[in-house]
């Protein structure tokens, strides 16, 4: 990504990515914006959702499991609402067959399964929202 690119993610992801890349990936080259989900709102079935810009256009949704700070995003677009679930579900096939993503611990695997169930509940309650999976083109 070009220098100065804004990165908006759960504060927990900063440490994870820095350890993964063995560097302070976001300190100099990127415009890092950590989301503090402890200050978010509960929007069932999700425990924490944050209005990123304060205008209702982009909502960050805490979806832990694949990583501790995995974040998905609800986008209000001119073509309708899109839910970018990222690696909370890599592909439509995994989503349709209840395959939660890989995780680094038993606790995270449990969270990944719970997150996938929450996404499926949310999608069934809002069938007009388009899901976008992490490794599948929309």
């Amino acid at each position: 990504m070009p220098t100065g690119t804004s990165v908006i993610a759960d504060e927990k992801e900063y440490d994870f990515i820095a350890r993964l890349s063995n560097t302070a990936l976001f300190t100099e080259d990127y415009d890092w914006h950590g989301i503090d989900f402890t200050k978010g709102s509960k929007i069932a079935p999700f425990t924490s959702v944050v209005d990123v810009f304060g205008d209702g256009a982009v909502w960050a949704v805490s979806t832990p499991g694949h990583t501790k700070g995995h974040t998905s995003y609800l986008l209000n677009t001119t073509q309708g609402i899109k839910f970018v679930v990222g690696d909370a579900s890599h592909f439509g096939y995994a989503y349709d067959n209840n395959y939660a993503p890989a995780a680094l611990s038993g606790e995270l695997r449990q969270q990944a399964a719970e997150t996938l169930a929450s996404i499926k509940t949310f999608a069934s309650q809002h069938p007009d929202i388009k899901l976008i999976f992490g490794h599948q083109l929309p």
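The chain has a mean pLDDT of 87. Residues 37-133 form a domain with the Metallo-beta-lactamase; Chain A fold (CATH 3.60.15.10).
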